[in-house]
Amino acid sequence: MARLDPALAEWVLDETRRCGATAAEVLCVSGESLEAGVRLGEIEKLKSSRERRLGIRVFADKSSATASTAEFDREALKAFIADSVRLARLTAPDPFSGLPDPALHPRHLTELELTDDEHGIIGADRALDIARRAEQTALKLDPRIKNSEGAGFDSGRYEILFANSQGFAGGYEGTSYSLGVAPIAESDGAMQQGYWYTTSRRFDGLDEPEAVGRISAERALQRLGARKVKTVRAPVIFEPERAASLIRALARAASGPSLYKGASFLIDRLGSQVAAPNVTIIDDGTIRGGLGSKPFDGEGLPTSRKAIVEAGVLKTYLLDSYSARKLKLSPTGNASRSVGDAPTVSSANLYLEPGRYSPEEIIGSVREGLYVTELIGFGVNSVTGDYSRGASGIWIENGALTHPVQEITIAGNLKAMFMAIEMIGNDLVWRSSTASPTIKIAEMTIAGA
Amino acid sequence: MTNELVRPEKFFANRFGMSDSVFERIIGSALERRADYVDLYFEYRDAEGISLEESIVKHTSKSISQGVGVRVCAEDRTGYAYSDEVTIDRMRLAAKAARVIADQRGERAAAVRIGEPVAQHALYELESTPLEVPLEERARLLSEIDRTAREFDPRVVNVMASFAAERKIVMIVNSDGQVAADLQPLCRLNVTVIADDGKSRQVGSHGGGGRVEYRHFIESERWREFTLKAARQAIINLDAVDAPAGEMVVVLGPGWPGILLHEAIGHGLEGDFNRKRTSAFAGRIGEQVASPLCTVVDDGTIANRRGSLNVDDEGTPTSRTVLIEKGVLRGYLQDRLNARLMKMAPTGNGRRESFAHPPMPRMTNTFMLPGESTPEEIIKSVRSGLYAVSFGGGQVDITNGKFVFSASEAYLIEDGKATRPVKGATLIGNGPDVLTRVAMVGNDLELDPGVGTCGKDGQSVPVGVGLPTIRIDGITVGGTRA
Fold it and tell me: Which of A261, B120, B265, B437 could be cross-linked to B310 through a Cys-Cys bond (beta carbons 3.0 to 4.6 Å apart)?
């Protein structure tokens, strides 16, 4: 991987000053990855990537612009920087804009174990072998597994370098590994796909390929024979992967930019009950080896651990320094920054604290209802909280899973849904940067036939 | 516009010192093992964005990206490697990485000779792109939009408007010696309005664009139409009642509701899923999958449309492909790899997000041809149902055929009249049979205003959709009112 040069960042900052910028930030990202795919046991795809981009945010007093480039040649960079400063001057002055309070930058960075000894690249032969083992396990599990969209093993590493004109400079590296399998089950002329995956910053932190393959096949098989159900209002249980999407929706509504734009159902709700008393939602950017961990955020502020919701009460919003100033609050270290865009806000490692029920107990509590295993579509309105998504899963009768269902929707409003979280599972597992145990919502509208 | 931009095929030669002999050497190296096909994809893209919120033009952004991707295909295997440094050394490394998928054995391939550029369409010969319009002018337009939306109704509390424009120069060179180059302009104006009446808070959005000049938005005041549609939608939704739940008759309005076709039909007919037989449509060519009223096409050759291209991202000229003809399934959308393996002809649907991605079969502009009914007749024919005129996104499960799309503006139909507005709701159906329930097709075909972006396997590409007003006798509406 092409190492990033801290001297380049210094040079870029000097150049922005020379062009008349009153403040500036520079972000360099460099990365390398290998994606290996197999299908029905044969190689299907090998993709190797290397990328390096530089982004700047420049201020002309209270006006700003963001720009990014892949041209690192000094002459090209000079023209690019001059152009960006010119762009900033065209933007209207915004009294809330600017770099963060310099006193908030960290003095030293915490070691978060974001890399491992494999350095992020697993060679093609080994990667293909892992993907093959996972897919083979799926294909051999049951004669009804007849086809496959394949299995993929990806590995990569990246390096981040960030500096601003008020003296903060920092950097970190990270690695990531993931394996996903998508077998297809077939019976009576109908096909269903199953998907399962594992992701980690450490190669040795991944689940065994055979386990991933087996679960992916079981997920395909459990969908066979799915049918519609009658439209009804009933309890809905979200399996952990699907429950995580609800937690993500809440975090989005609690993010500073949604709030100051008036585009959130959580406006003016700080300190109020927004969820059932058993609900505590944490965002923590400092978990060692966490998929969403980083030593500083997109503006160079330290990341932190905080409860967004504690015992059902909304405790904090997620803020960068701009939205914090707008809302007269303090930034929370949640600025996220891609190379080409101005900072926005995102959660780091976001999770719902586990409860005391086993998933079996939760399913056992339902006389008639839905256990959701798949969701599709984008029917979540952050402004109103209205929620309506396509779903499939397993129908519950008298506390037991009965038959698979599909071509139905589940609908409600997130405000009411979070208040109606009746049971929370004890099965929290980190599989991506947002995680949740199983949850049960007392009642939603299930639309079908 | 500078001269080097006017002739895209000269651009990479001038800027990075590329030449036919370089291409021949790199492709030759990529072909060193037994491969069927090799291509190089060069890309240079510059883009600018400007956005307004709270009546202030707060953000401007600019990005320049460039790179080259080397692809090697051998049977159904693909090797891909790319670099954002366009140099001969980097390309040689990429060729070495990409050819790993080909077998070691076999003869050295015959030398590649680069020929003349392929014949291609001229669908967006612009005098200038919006990037050449002074940014101040684009900023003034956003302020005018803000003022217009706020004047429309005092309940409008915030307006977010953005204008994005890009210019992409691409060149594709392949092992058949073909060369294609294209300059692809693209822009989009978006307006989102938030309204609040003290009791409820709602959102409305509209926008449009394409491979067009800036005056597209100014002529006939399109910007005002977008603004008023967004504002009206937010205001109307303030009085929306809960949407119904269950299976019912649904009338879709013209234009963007064509996202139905994109999700229900289009993805399932992409060549890759059909070659692998993982699509619910696999092996069903020639079968009746829709009512005889339905003819659906994918057409990449419509001038200035967002989903149109002179050549696809493999250098094949785009075309008009009939997917469903009078209800019968006719064709697939193909890139070169899948066309070759299925022994069919490529249809000009090989597309990719950027040099960092290998191409796949993707849609361009997908729409249904008009029928005989007037939209008024169609609504009048429904005793009880839903009339949906505006949609957000959609998604499909290719393998079981189930798809969703989410209405953002819809009305109840009561006794042949569109009445009360209802809250947004997701509609869910089954791709291979939803169109068999189409009972009426309107004479009012509209293409969408130019806002669509389609995601597949992590790659986003601009697309278009279109639909006349249609009546579907039975699709599940996911409201809350059971």
Answer: B120
| Encoded tokens for B38 | 């090799």
> Is there a contact between B245 and A409 if contact means CB atoms under 8 Å apart?
yes
All residues of chain A having their beta carbon less than 8 Å from the beta carbon of residue B78 are 44-47
pLDDT digits (tens, 9 = 90+) for A148-176: 999 999 999 999 999 999 999 999 999 99
- Which among B57, B62, B135 is the nearest to A67, CB-wise? B62
Say if CB A58 and CB A64 are below 8 A apart. yes
Residue indicated by tokens 């066309």? B339
pTM over 0.90? The answer is: yes
Q: Catalogue all structural domains in chain B, each as residue range(s) with its CATH number.
A: 3-238 (3.30.2290.10), 245-478 (no CATH)
B432 touches chain A (CB under 8 A): no
Q: Where are the domains of chain A?
A: 6-221, 226-449
Most A CBs within 10 A among B43, B46, B62, hence the mutation to make, goes to: B62
Res A245: pLDDT: 98
- Taking the C-alpha atoms of residue B410 and residue B421, their distance in angstroms, rounded to an integer, is 6
pLDDT digits (tens, 9 = 90+) for B329-360: 999 999 999 999 999 999 999 999 999 999 99
Q: Do A191 and B400 touch (CB under 8 A)?
A: yes
pLDDT band at A118 (very low <50, low <70, confident <90, very high): confident
Strand locations in A386-438 (E): 386-397, 400-413, 421-424, 434-435
Whether A100 shows a pLDDT value over 70: the answer reads: yes
Q: Distance between CA B439 and CA A74 in Å, rounded? A: 64
Chain B positions in Cβ-Cβ contact with residue A381 (cut-off 8 Å): 203, 424
* Nearest Cα residue in chain A from B396: A376
Q: Is the ipTM of this complex over 0.90?
A: yes
Q: Is B287 on the interface with A (CB under 8 A)?
A: no
